[in-house]
Every structure is written in C-alpha cells, then in structure tokens.
Write a structure and sequence with these properties.
- Helices cover 48% and strands 12% of the residues.
- With 803 residues, the protein is α/β, with parallel strands linked by helices.
- The strands form five sheets. It has a five-stranded parallel β-sheet. The chain has a five-stranded parallel β-sheet with strand order 7-6-8-9-10, with helices on both faces. A five-stranded parallel β-sheet has the order 12-13-14-11-15, with helices on both faces.
- Helix 2 packs across helix 6, helix 16 runs parallel beside helix 21 and helix 16 packs across helix 22.
- The radius of gyration is 37 Å and the shape is elongated.
Length: 803
C-alpha cells in the first residue's frame, strides 16, 4: 500500500518481491525507466477505434518531449516478454488511459494491474459503439470509476489533457484478513471442476472468502480492491469460452487477477479447456482438460499461502527452532500430569454436567479424557472447604479374588447383596476418614460436636486399624476378610444374607451410618468420585460379575444418598466408566435409563483446538493468542492438500490421547531434522510411527475379545482402503471365520473403529454415532443403492500399507 507522502511512481518502480512470470522475485531492471505522462492500453479490434486512439497518441507525442505518451504499440518488445514490457510502461506512467469500448481481457487485466500498482486510471469509451455495452453493465466494475467519452482523436486528446480534472489513484487502507486469507472467484456453474476446487478448499487449513455471481451478480471496483488487498491468495476459476456466462465471468477474473498480481498476491488462474488465452496472462494461467489435474495446482498455491502466513509472523529460523524444542504438550495420560492439567484443562459440556452433579455416570472410550475430567472435577470440588470429596480409584483386578472364590458360587441375588454391602461399607469408611480429616476447629470448642467426632474416630479405628494403608489396600483387606470368612462355609449359596452382612461390616450398618451423619452438617456436601474401576476388564467381554460390581456400586451410592437426604446433607456421586462396560451395564440392568449420563463426545473440532492451544500456551509463554495464531507457528497449516489439523484429526478416533500422541511424534521428528516448524514430511514420518502404534494397540484389544484370531488385523495388509461386503466376507472366510461367527467379527471391527462405512462419499465410523452400531449400519444402508462399502480407518493405512 502507498503510504502518506510517497509518490506512486516511485513505489511502482520498486521491483516486486514476487512475480508470477519470474516465478519468484522480479528479474527486471527498473532503474532506467523515466516517468511519462500517460500510457495507453486498448485492443487492436475494432480497427476504427484502435486507429482513433493511435492517432490521438501521435498527436500527443507531437507536442511533447520524445518518449512521452506511450502505447502498447509504441514499445520495443522484440525478444522480450511482452507483459514485462507492459509492466514497465504501467509502472512509469503517471496516468493509465484504458479503452473500455469493447470487452477485452488483456485490457481488463492491465487495468487491474495498474490499479494494483496504485496508478491513476482513466477509462475512455466511444459511446457510439454499442457492441459490448450490456456486458460492461453486467460486469459492474467501472460503475464508480467513471469514464471519459470520445468519438474522434481530438476529443480523446482533450479528455486526456484536461487541466481541471484529477484522476486519483485508489489508495484505500486495507487490513489483511488473517482468518480467511484466500479469495476465490467461483465459476457460476457447478461443473465437476468447480466442485473439485470447492472440495479442496473446504478441506484445507485456511478459511476462504468466495465471490459467487449467483449470489452477488456484480462485483464493484472497491469491493474487488478490498477483497484482493485483504488476501494472501486469489484463486480464479475461468470457464470454457463456449459456456453460458463465460464472457462476463472470465472478464471479471482477468481484472481481479491483474489487481492481485500487482499487489504481490499469490494468484492461481485455472482455465477450463485449452483455448488460446490472452497474451498478457497466457504464461501464468493453468489450463486443464481433466479435473484430477486441478489438485496439484491448488495444493501448490495453498503451500505458498502457508509460507506467506509464516513469513508474516516474522519468526526467525533460530528463534523458531528453539521454540519448537521447548514445546511440551503434556502427557497423554491424565494420571501423569494431575497438577499440570490445571493450567490447560478444557472444560467440556460433560465436565460441566459432572461438576454440577447433573451426571451420575461419565462414559467414554479409552483415551477420551475420562480421567482428565475426574481430576478436574475433584480439583474444583476440593477448593470448597464445605465439600467432603472422595476421589477413589479402585482397579478391577482387586475384585478378581472375590469373583473367582466367592461370587462364582453365589446365586445372582446373593451376588448383588454381597457386592452392594461391600460398596456400602467401603464408601461409609471413606466418608468417615474424610470427615475426620476435614473437621473444623469448631469441633474442638464445641463439647457436643467434639464427642461426636471422637466417637467416629474410635469406630473408624475399630474397622480399619492403625495400619490403614490406602484405599486399594483397604479394598483388598475387605475382600480377603470375606473370602477367609466363607472358606469353611461350604455351599455359599446356602448362606443367609445376614451372615454375609456380618462378614462385611463386623457391625450393624446403622451404627456406622448414624455416627457419620451426626458429624455432618446440612451445609456440607458429600461427593464420591470413582474412576478406574474397569481398568483391566476385557473389552466387550467382561464377566457378568464385573458388571454386577459396577451395578452394585451405583446401588450403594443411591442408598447412601437416601440416608444423607434424610439428614439434610447433599450427597452426589459420579462413576467414570468405559463405553463398552456402560453398554453391558445397560443391557444387564432391568430398570435402565434412571442414571444421568454424560457421554464424552469430542465431535466438536473447536474443543480439540482449545485443547492444543491451551497446552502450547501453558508450556511455551512466547506463543500467544488463539489456535489460529498459534498453530501456523508450530505446524505448517496446509499439508497433503488439506488443513494440517484436520489431517491429523482424520487419522485418529477423535480422542484427545490420539491427537496428543500424533502431535508429539510430529514435533519430535521436526526437531530431529532441525526444522523451524512441523512440515509435511515430518507429519508423514510421524504418521508412519503413529499408525504402527494404533495397529498394535488395537491388536491387543481385539485379541482379548477374539482370542481365536490373534492376528486378524494382519489379514488386511496390502488390502484396498475401501471394499465391498463380498470382498470382506471372502477375506474373513480365508481367515477361517465361519458363517456363524462372521457377523460378530464384523461388528467387532466396526465397534473398534478399524472398519467404517462409506456414506455419501464420506467416511463414517462408530465413534461418530457414539458406538451405536445399529444406527451406523442404518446410515450406511440408507445411503447405499447396492452393496455396502466398508472403509479401513485412515489411522491404519500406512501400517497396513493399504493399496
């Protein structure tokens, strides 16, 4: 942009840092150029008008110094690039006189270029010539610029030499649009090529702005100027000249692209078909006859856009390298970063449901962030001194002995009674422990309250003993006590429920409950948070007794809640559980639907952006701003023809753990290669390692469920990414899977998201339907007119070397 006090001619004589024709910095010498009063641009046809303009130029030259008043016909272009010479003439002219009597693409391109250089432009027109008058009215660009009319050379000379008229350049200040740096002139027809370009742009990292003549029939000069100058990149899709509306659309593209090239923007002109192009831009236009060729050109200019955005950040090589080395995105396991989570935890809707007590179950797949929510809720609640918070993390294996020795011999009713009593006892003991730890100083000043707490302390010691250990140890002690007590009982099924109760409590349950409630006040709230209970339980194959353990935990918390309500104490409980375990729980529970559930669903991409941005900002102070400002400094925003962040997401199951794993690998690769940020080749190397990790993890999970087929996934090595159901059946039959188990294996592969369906040219996997396989299958069948098409998840493509 031209700044205050600078002469437009001086600015125009500065070689541009980017030239479409040179493929880089301008290679022309402007030092010998001398300013001239005016440069005339006009088409050679119609001859009557070009002859008039040519005569006017001769008249002006005759009354001026040699070399003044040039036209494109007076330039010596032998052996030179024609447009480079035109460019020099435009740069050295104080006024550009442009004939717009007829619609000519070369002239429109040069007018745009002149305006982009900051030159004053005088359109002139022979108003007696009617041929393209309606086309100019449809174009609309010159409505606000105005024009001078002429009918002969004398009137034209008079218009150019008017002393009382000013022809100011357009120098409107424009702010670069960093959020949407691409301006796209869309073809008004929905051809295959137009759809292809739109699809590529929608997948790329950058947002883009579109001019669509179907929505806005006319593009004004000022709108074009603002849109171009606020962009890094302009993409124009020119139509085949034989198509309806091509003349106006291509004329508009010529003007806008000329404006953009002069303004040093990245410009891509895509031309449908191989017809002869205007000489001014035939060397920089890309013609195609196959839409598949478009991808490479669009991808190239998107990479150039990413580089320009990076340059705009003004990050030096040295500082960026140190920056990348210092980045720490945190551990993928919440257990390993409990304290650090406080600085960058993303408060999802499910977190708010849990922290306000509106959810009794938080459900999610492994790696979806259940433990992160657990720690965040616990941290928030413990800040309030009035809360008694139990954050318990039992592990399923602690109940293995109880299941194998005791529960297996019991009837279902006795199992449920025993487990409910066990949980009741464990939770009451933990509440007593926490109440004793949190008793206020007033309990020592109030004799009555002091006596209550003393009684609670004595009772607690009777049940726990001096060497109380941690919660896990207390669980094991209680399990051992039950097992030992029943060792000589013979037939456990014959035991009375009262005998089981005595083995669990060693005292009447009401005694423990009553003493605890006496020590709590109505102003207090009791929270019980339970995580990790299903750790070690097999996927989709848990024992009925394990589901009973979870079911009875929920029942025990309901009972304690009822007791608390009677005494005016608010009681809340939240259990964090895997999705597959929850589904089995629902299937085994008669009165299903009464538990409030928060499903951890990361379908909102903005939440992932928050997750990454907060971690980067928290660990690297020099990174400031939101995701859109930070991400291009760390990762090339455009890779493999699409938005790099979306590219990473598409290779995951949309779980925080996956995203963090992938990004960490990519940063490690980039640092080892001494790159200033993560580039496309770094992402590909990281993807190879990530894909192998994902495949190995899934192999172990499937092996636990389908032990007869431990290497099932290896059967897909070298297979196509997509295939029909017939092909899938043949592959599974080859593995030895018979009809009776075929659907089970398919469902297994679908549930684990190894396979999904191709639905209307999109890929749909189980996590996108919250693992509701019937819904997923229904979506696929409704969209299919024939055989279902399966697709292997992109996370596994490289590890399996998919065709």
């Amino acid at each position: 942009m031209q700044s205050k006090g600078e002469d437009s001619t001086t600015i125009a004589l500065t070689p541009p840092p980017r030239c479409q024709y040179a493929g880089g910095p301008c290679n022309q010498d402007f030092k010998t150029l001398n300013p001239n009063p005016a440069f005339f641009i006009y088409p050679n046809d119609p001859k009557a008008i070009s002859n008039t303009i040519r005569e006017a130029v001769h008249q002006l030259q005759a009354h001026s110094s040699p070399g003044s008043y040039k036209s494109w016909e007076t330039m010596a272009v032998g052996g030179k690039l024609i447009f480079c010479e035109i460019c020099k003439a435009l740069r050295s002219a104080k006024l550009v006189v442009a004939d717009i009597t007829t619609l000519n693409f070369n002239v429109l391109f040069e007018i745009g270029y002149a305006i982009g250089l900051g030159k004053a432009v005088l359109p002139v027109r022979d108003i007696t010539y009617e041929r393209d008058k309606k086309l100019f009215e449809e174009l609309g660009i010159f409505d606000v610029l105005g024009y001078e009319s002429f009918q002969n050379s004398i009137s034209l000379v008079s218009a150019v030499t008017k002393k009382d008229r000013q022809y100011p350049a357009i120098t409107r200040p424009v702010t670069t649009n960093m959020q949407s740096p691409i301006y796209y002139l869309r073809s008004p027809l929905d051809s295959d090529a137009s759809i292809k370009i739109g699809s590529i742009l929608k997948k790329c990292y950058f947002r883009f702005r579109t001019f669509d003549s179907r929505e806005t029939p006319r593009l004004s000069l000022h709108e074009a100027f603002v849109q171009v100058n606020s962009s890094f990149t302009v993409i124009a899709h020119l139509m085949d000249g034989n198509r309806s509306g091509a003349q106006i659309h291509n004329a508009r593209c010529a003007f806008v692209c000329g404006l953009a090239m002069a303004a040093n923007k990245h410009v891509l002109m895509l031309q449908e078909g191989f017809a002869a192009q205007p000489i001014d831009y035939r060397d920089v236009i890309y013609a195609y006859d196959n839409v598949e060729y478009i991808y490479g050109r669009v991808d190239r200019i998107l990479h150039q856009t990413a580089d320009s955005l990076q340059d705009d950040q003004k990050i030096s090589h040295t500082s960026a390298l140190r920056l990348l080395e210092r980045i720490e995105i945190g551990d993928v396991s919440a257990e390993n970063e409990i304290l650090a989570l406080e600085s960058y935890f993303v408060k999802t809707p499910q977190y708010h449901q849990a922290s306000t007590g509106h959810a009794r179950l938080v459900v999610g797949r492994k790696g979806s962030g259940k433990s992160a929510v657990f720690y965040a809720v616990s941290r928030r609640l413990t800040h309030d001194e009035q809360n008694i918070v139990l954050d318990l993390k039992p592990e399923g294996h602690q109940f293995v002995k109880l299941r194998e020795v005791v529960l297996a011999k019991m009837s279902e009713g006795l199992q449920l009674h025993t487990l409910t009593a066990l949980w009741n006892y464990l939770l009451l003991i933990e509440i007593a422990k926490e109440a004793l730890a949190r008793r206020g100083g007033s309990s020592y000043d109030d004799p009555v309250l002091f006596a209550k707490f003393k009684r609670l302390e004595i009772l607690y010691q009777q049940h726990v003993g001096e060497d109380e250990g941690d919660f896990s140890e207390r669980v094991l002690k209680l399990v051992n006590r039950i097992v030992d007590g029943l060792a000589g009982a013979g037939d456990c099924a014959a035991l009375a429920t009262s005998a089981i109760t005595n083995l669990v409590y060693k005292d009447h349950i009401l005694t423990i409950e009553r003493v605890i409630m006496d020590c709590l006040s109505p102003s207090q709230r009791v929270w019980v948070l339970v995580d990790n209970l299903d750790k070690g339980w097999a996927y989709l194959g848990s024992h009925a007794a394990e589901i009973a353990i979870l079911r009875c935990l929920l029942e025990a918390t309901r009972k304690i809640g009822h007791w608390c309500d009677q005494d005016g104490v608010d009681f809340r409980s939240i259990v964090f559980v895997r999705k597959d375990i929850f589904d089995l729980l629902v299937d085994k529970t008669p009165d299903r639907g009464k538990e409030a559930v928060a499903n951890l669903d990361w379908s909102d991409i903005e939440l992932f952006k928050q997750l990454i941005a907060r971690r980067l900002v928290a660990t690297t102070p020099e990174l400031k701003g939101g995701f859109d400002e930070i991400w291009p400094q760390v990762v090339n925003p455009h890779v493999f023809g699409e938005n790099s962040f979306n590219y990473i997401l598409s290779r995951t199951f949309l779980r925080p753990r996956d995203i963090l794993n992938f990004l960490r690998k990519a940063i490690e690769v980039a640092v080892s290669r001494e790159h200033i940020r993560v580039e496309q080749e770094d992402l590909r190397a990281a993807e190879v390692a990530f894909s192998e990790d994902m495949l190995n993890d899934l192999r172990y999970e499937i092996r636990d469920v389908a032990a007869d087929f431990p290497d099932l996934l290896h059967e897909f090595i070298g297979q196509p990414k997509r295939f029909g159901e017939t092909q899938l059946n043949l592959l599974l039959y080859g593995k030895g899977i018979e009809d009776i188990g075929l659907q089970r294996i398919k469902d297994l592969l679908l549930w684990f998201c190894f396979l999904g369906f191709s639905v209307r040219d999109d890929e749909r996997f189980a996590y996108q339907t919250l693992y509701n396989l019937p819904k997923l299958k229904m979506l696929a069948s409704q969209a299919s007119s024939g055989e279902l098409i399966y697709v292997i998840h992109p996370a596994f493509w490289l590890a399996l070397e998919c065709a």
